[in-house]
């Protein structure tokens, strides 16, 4: 494993961009078995509020993107951090329930919902306060607390955080399809939390502490890349019906966007969502780096399905220290 200093990591997006312009080679801190598809499909589907048939939206999205879940065990990983009434902190429970129902309709053998909150340790409180418990009970969907699931140590597929391996929950490792189910939000350290950042919740708190202390110690951007490179979620369904702007991921304000975004290329979906809310994906360290080995973030390599991104274009408010990631007019 090559040693990587913080200074080196911060210069990687520039160095990688130069190399990619010539050969689109993977980054030097990545296993050589990664290969980028020439193009990626991202679906944006208009959803005005949470009262509609969200299950039908997700089901149609699976068909539009050619995602076949028949016979698969599917793990849905929503974003559940904390609960405050009136704040759009978590993936809306109706989106989670809709995704679970759509997966069943599409022929999934098993569907579970799993999360390991990094802020609130009391998962029973979060499930009850958010209303998710009732929806999962009615659907007969099992919930797994990833903070306390059995774990298995596995080698990492990239080494931006200078770690060779990490322990991950067996429920995540053994699932046929891991689906990231994030809330679209700003993030006061990473810039944006969406499909990729949402994978922080698969790191078990019982092993690595709260709020996932090891990930902060080894670098948020570096950890995002290593987790996504290793877990390799095969689909994302983004709750962008109502997002969060400002001092996210917990203390921001609600900002309606009116969409559900879907895709099998998480960097492509995150880059599209970033542009929709006025953030330049190439100015997000982890997303720019991911664009050289995990997925496509350039608009010319993304095939838009469903609605035109321009239909949803809006500017999220950013805190002062994140003004530099603003998308140029």
Describe this structure in words.
Helix 3 (about 95-105) links the parallel strand 2 and strand 3 (about 110-115). The chain has one domain. The longest helix is centred in the N-terminal third of the chain and has 17 residues, at about 5-20. It has helices at about 5-20, 55-65, 95-105, 125-130, 130-140, 170-175, 205-210, 215, 220-230, 265-275, 285-290; strands at about 40-45, 75-80, 110-115, 140-145, 150-155, 165-170, 175-180, 185, 190-195, 235-245, 255-265, 300-305. Helix 3 packs parallel to helix 5 (about 130-140). The chain is about 30% helix and about 20% strand. With about 325 residues, it is of the alpha/beta class.
Please write out the topology.
Blueprint: H1 6-22, E1 40-46, H2 54-65, E2 73-78, H3 93-105, E3 110-115, H4 123-130, H5 132-139, E4 142-145, E5 151-155, E6 165-169, H6 170-174, E7 177-181, E8 183-187, E9 191-193, H7 205-208, H8 213-217, H9 220-231, E10 235-245, E11 253-263, H10 266-276, H11 285-290, E12 302-306
Parallel strand pairs: 1-12, 2-3, 2-7, 3-4, 7-10, 8-10
Antiparallel strand pairs: 1-11, 5-6, 8-9, 10-11
Helix pairs in contact: 2-3, 3-5
């Amino acid at each position: 494993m090559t040693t990587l200093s913080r200074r080196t990591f911060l210069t990687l997006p520039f160095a990688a961009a130069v190399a990619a312009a010539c050969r689109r080679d993977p980054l030097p801190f990545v296993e050589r078995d990664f290969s980028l598809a020439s193009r990626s499909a991202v679906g944006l589907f208009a959803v005005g509020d949470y009262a509609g048939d969200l299950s039908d939206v997700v089901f149609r999205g699976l068909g539009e993107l050619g995602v076949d879940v028949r016979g698969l065990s599917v793990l849905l990983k929503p974003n559940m951090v904390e609960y405050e009434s009136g704040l759009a902190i978590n993936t809306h429970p109706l989106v989670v329930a809709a995704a679970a129902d759509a997966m069943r309709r599409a022929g999934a053998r098993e569907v579970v919902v799993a999360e390991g909150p990094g802020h609130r340790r009391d998962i029973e409180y979060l499930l009850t306060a958010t209303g998710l418990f009732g929806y999962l009970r009615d659907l007969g969907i099992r919930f797994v607390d990833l903070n306390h699931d059995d774990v298995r140590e596995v080698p990492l597929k990239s080494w931006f955080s200078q770690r060779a391996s990490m322990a991950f929950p067996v429920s995540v490792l053994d699932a046929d399809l891991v689906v990231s189910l994030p809330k679209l939000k700003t993030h006061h350290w990473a810039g944006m939390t969406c499909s990729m950042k949402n994978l922080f919740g698969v790191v078990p708190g019982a092993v690595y502490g709260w709020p996932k202390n090891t990930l902060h110690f080894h670098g948020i951007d570096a950890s995002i890349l290593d987790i996504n490179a290793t877990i390799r979620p095969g689909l994302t369904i983004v709750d962008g019906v109502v997002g969060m702007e400002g001092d996210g991921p917990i203390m921001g304000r609600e900002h309606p966007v009116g969409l559900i975004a879907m895709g099998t290329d998480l960097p492509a979906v995150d880059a599209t969502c970033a542009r929709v809310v006025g953030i330049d994906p190439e100015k997000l360290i982890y997303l720019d780096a991911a664009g050289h080995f995990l997925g496509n973030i350039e608009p010319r390599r993304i095939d838009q399905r469903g609605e035109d991104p321009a239909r949803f274009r809006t500017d999220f408010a950013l805190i002062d220290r994140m003004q530099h990631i603003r998308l140029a007019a």
